[in-house]
Each structure stands twice: as C-alpha cells, then as structure tokens.
Write a sequence for this structure.
C-alpha cells in the first residue's frame, strides 16, 4: 500500500480526529440531519464528499492501522471501525448524500 491513500482516501482523518473529543463512542449521539448540516457548513460540499469517500475506503480496508494515524488515540482499531460503520450508515439516513449531490443506495 502506498501513501497515495492519503490524498484520495484520507477523508477518514476528520472523523478519526473527532474521536479525541468523544468520551464513549458506543453512547455517542447519532449523526443526524442537524449533524449533516453542521458538517456541510464547516467543510463545504466538496470536502464532505472526500470525508465520505475516506470513510468508505476505511471500512473496506479494515486491516489498516487507524489507531496509530494520530498519536495518543485511545480507541482500538475495532472500536474505530465500528464507529466508521455507524457513522456511514447514519450519514446515509441523515440525507447527507442528497445534500452534497451524491446518489447512495
């Protein structure tokens, strides 16, 4: 695996970094329409597409060492991937894909 994933699929780093601010990912509130609007306002449509693409890459590349991307990550790879799966599913339910012009079935 080359470092090219950082450019094309590195969008997972935004939600991964966000884990530093989450005390308990198993009880974290769902990603809802309000969360989608906040994400769009903060990052813009094109960057949000990169974030989604990065999350999609992450859940397909489960062997990647996400825990060590940022020093001091307290969650295991298993927990991180659980959170990524949950977030992607909730993003689809939140209408985020429609908001950024993506068609996800």
């Amino acid at each position: 695996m080359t470092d090219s994933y950082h450019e094309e699929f590195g969008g997972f780093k935004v939600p991964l970094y966000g884990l530093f601010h989450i005390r308990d990912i198993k009880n974290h509130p769902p990603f809802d329409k309000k969360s989608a609007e906040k994400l769009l306002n903060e990052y813009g449509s094109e960057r949000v597409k990169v974030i989604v693409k990065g999350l999609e890459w992450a859940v397909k590349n489960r062997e990647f060492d996400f825990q060590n991307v940022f020093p001091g990550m307290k969650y295991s790879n298993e927990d991180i991937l659980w959170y990524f799966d949950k977030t992607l599913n909730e993003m689809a339910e939140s209408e985020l894909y429609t908001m950024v012009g993506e068609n996800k079935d």
Confidence is low (pLDDT under 50) at residues 1-5.
